[in-house]
């Protein structure tokens, strides 16, 4: 049997590159630059250096499945250039789907979205969030991701492009950058602890989140490809953890008792950020998938990887 052909937009990013390393098939990754090609462990992955809005049909025809991973990743663009979110998450998604609306062969589109589309629904109701919970994004990033979800569904109805939407909780892992707290605060804090440098945390870490390790994310993305199309899943580890418990584990296992200060989030963060989030992942669990990597194991992987770096 011939192997499948995959296209991963944002394929040199944090999630996209991890997925490219695991997929069994012919993989093409789309990226604006080859700056992070060191994330790829395979030599047989084709790298297509183009902006999503520059794609042509000749570039991407004859693929079986598209993982549309290209995305902005935080709320802060609205302060400097809000069009980054709209151009990437909305216009980029439309551009991609337009290439396939008249194609004889319709690829499956798997779209990683975010738990941020729910806003503070958990704090409002006190009930774990599932796929049917009310969506009310608080920032431009999740608002554009939710808009992109609806665009994916629209093109499915109009042009029969099959899709799966995966709303992931907090994704973390060792290959994420450690120098940008806006993108990966947990990694940023781990590096601070390894270096013995003081750091501040919001609310004293007294809030609940669901953290899912990137390897579990990859397994979930490959799993949903096997399911019936045209569905949405909330995907996380499935057990909430207090943020201060993550901090305590990091401090204990880096061996550095750094000074950890407590601070209130700035007004902007308070306006667009989520405080507590508890996920109900029963829907995808019932179909046979469940995350395997505990927060302790995931944090230890990052600590081990960062400790081995020459800094």
UniProtKB/TrEMBL annotation:
Recorded source organism is Candidatus Buchananbacteria bacterium RIFCSPHIGHO2_02_FULL_38_8
Chain ranges of the NAD-dependent epimerase/dehydratase domain: 7-235
Query: Domain of life here?
Result: Bacteria
User: Record's Gene3D superfamilies?
Assistant: NAD(P)-binding Rossmann-like Domain (3.40.50.720), UDP-galactose 4-epimerase, domain 1 (3.90.25.10)
What is the name of this protein?
A: NAD-dependent epimerase/dehydratase domain-containing protein
Q: Which InterPro entries does the UniProt record give?
A: Epimerase_deHydtase, NAD(P)-bd_dom_sf
Report the sequence similarity comment from the record: Belongs to the NAD(P)-dependent epimerase/dehydratase family.
State the taxonomy lineage.
Bacteria, Candidatus Buchananiibacteriota
């Amino acid at each position: 049997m011939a192997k499948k052909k995959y296209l991963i937009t944002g394929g040199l990013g944090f999630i996209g590159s991890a997925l490219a390393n695991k997929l069994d098939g012919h993989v093409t990754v789309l990226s604006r630059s080859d700056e992070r090609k060191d994330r790829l462990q395979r030599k047989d992955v084709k790298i297509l250096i183009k902006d999503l809005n520059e794609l042509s049909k000749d570039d991407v025809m004859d693929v079986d499945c598209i993982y549309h991973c290209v995305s902005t990743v935080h709320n802060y663009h609205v302060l400097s250039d809000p069009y980054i979110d709209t151009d990437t998450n909305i216009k980029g998604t439309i551009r991609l789907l337009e290439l396939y609306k008249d194609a004889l062969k319709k690829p499956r589109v798997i779209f990683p979205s975010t738990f941020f589309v729910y806003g503070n629904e958990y704090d409002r109701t006190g009930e774990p969030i599932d796929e049917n919970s009310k969506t009310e994004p608080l920032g431009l990033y999740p608002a554009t991701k939710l808009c992109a979800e609806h665009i994916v569904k629209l093109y499915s109805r109009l042009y029969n492009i099959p899709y799966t939407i995966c709303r992931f909780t907090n994704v973390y892992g060792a290959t994420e950058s450690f120098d940008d707290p806006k993108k990966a605060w947990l990694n940023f804090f781990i590096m601070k602890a390894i270096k013995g440098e003081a750091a501040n945390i919001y609310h004293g870490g007294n809030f609940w989140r669901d953290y899912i390790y990137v390897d579990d994310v990859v397994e979930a993305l490959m799993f949903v490809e096997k399911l019936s199309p045209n569905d949405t899943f909330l995907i996380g580890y499935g057990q909430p953890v207090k943020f201060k418990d993550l901090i305590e584990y990091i401090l204990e296992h880096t061996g550095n008792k750094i000074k950890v200060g407590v601070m209130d989030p700035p007004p902007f963060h308070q306006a667009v950020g989520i405080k507590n989030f508890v996920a109900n992942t029963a829907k995808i669990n019932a179909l046979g998938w469940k995350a395997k990597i505990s927060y302790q194991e995931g944090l230890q992987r990052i600590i081990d990887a960062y400790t081995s770096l020459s800094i």
